Amino acid sequence: MTGKRLKTIAIPGTNKILGGEEVFFVAEIGKGFIQTKENRSIEEYLANAKRLIDEAVIAGADAVKFQTHEVNDEQANIPIVSPHFQGAERYAWVKRNTEATPLAFWRELKNYADKKGIIFFSTAMSRLAAEKLTKVGVSLWKVGSGDVEDFLMLDHMVETGLPIIISTGMVSFAELDEIVSYLKNRKAPLAILYCVSEYPCPPEKFNLASIEKIKEKYPEVVVGFSDHSVGDLKPVLAAVKVGARIVEKHFSLSRDLWGSDHKVSMTPPEFAEMVRVVRAGEYKKVAHQKFYGSKNRELDGAKNRFRPYFKKSLVAARVIKKGEKITKEMIHTLRPAKHLKGLPSRDLHKVVGREVIRQIKKGQPLTKQHVR
User: Fold this and answer.
1) Which residues of the chain have pLDDT under 50?
2) Whole-structure pTM value
3) Separation CA 143–CA 325 (nearest Å)
4) Among 346, 352, 343, which residue's Cα sits nearest to residue 320?
5) Where are the beta strands (DSSP E) in 24-92?
6) β-pairing, 164-167 with 190-195?
7) What element of type H or E holds 99?
8) Nearest in space to 286 (alpha carbons), one of 330, 236, 323
């Protein structure tokens, strides 16, 4: 740790800050309220989610985070199974999550978290998901690493003025430079979580020197650690020692439950122990060199194997007729880019305002040949 003044971000409507001396702990519940292969009622999902919030409060988390989906604004109906979760075809999985969580579901969870004295927020997985969360009234945003170039969604978040947290799991340093510049120019309060998108992540894959590099490259941001390793607190302690001031860990009642993230989650007693030892300052004594690596190393996200499954393409949200000028409302950003093969979502501002020279069907990926 240096003697420099820490960059901090106030979380609106709360007494919490990101980036202070105290580490901000996020219990990433995600889709962990889904615990069986068979569909259950919304009421059961809600009860599961509330129990997880209760356990997160007891464990000492500062915030609970979920994931919010709108399938038709996120995932093309193309059969594909992500390597990290073989239990369900991706479109069906996102559709199930969408149907399990209507607006009333999120509103009730937000109110419940408020009553329990813990911050509620969620990873919006698309623009419409972000719009839904705006109606719920979140106080900050999380953007998954596969969506950090979804400028359709980011533009909505920027307009709210709320802090934005992004992860690096599927991002290169060159891509991160562009994203940070884009958000900085729009004066968005920003935090970056160093992350390796492996489920679970072997501890030897960490390069925690990247945390220090991110702090040096972008002194205006708060830096943290999103950790998918299991069974060892040393990576978290090492990350805090080198400067992480946000720690995000998946959170579940049991790693034996059915679903995409339970297997890489902390249980409530494990999370409570993590909070205790960090608050007690035990991270100062950890031998962090094992996980440190080199500042010269590229982010794992540059070549992460999940990129083709989670990156997005620009797709027509309706028929766009020849001669029309493209607006944001005419476009979805959908995954998987590997099958859609259209213009990448990062090219949004290159096509908005341009004239269409041949009709584009609803659901058709946009290409360079469609515009001038």
Assistant:
1) 1-3
2) 0.95
3) 29
4) 352
5) 24-30, 63-68
6) parallel
7) helix 90-100
8) 236
Residues in the chain: 372
- Report the C-alpha gap between 218 and 220 in whole angstroms: 5
Cis peptide before 200 (omega within 30 of 0): yes
In the prediction, which pLDDT does 87 show? Answer: 73
| pLDDT per position as a tens digit, 273-311 | 999 999 999 999 999 999 999 999 999 999 999 999 999
Q: Up-side HSE of residue 83: CA atoms within 13 Å toward CB?
A: 11
Contact of 241 with 278, CB cutoff 8 Å:
no
Phi/psi at 118 (5° precision): -130, 145
Nearest to 343 by CA among 325, 311, 316, 367: 367
Alpha carbon of residue 132 to chain centroid: 16
DSSP 215-231: HHH-TTSEEEEEE---S
pLDDT score of 276: 98
Candidates 222, 225, 194, 144; CA nearest to 297 is 194
Residue type, 265: S
Backbone angles phi, psi at 176, to 5 degrees: -65, -40
Bridge partners (DSSP) listed for residue 251: 266
Cβ pair 120, 105 in contact under 8 A: no
Q: Return the beta strands (E) in the chain as ranges.
A: 9-10, 17-18, 24-30, 63-68, 119-124, 141-143, 164-167, 190-195, 222-227, 246-250, 313-316, 331-334
- 217-232 exposure pattern, b = at least 16 Cβ within 10 A, e = fewer: bbeebbbbbbbbbbee
Short-list 89, 90, 124, 158, CA closest to 310: 90
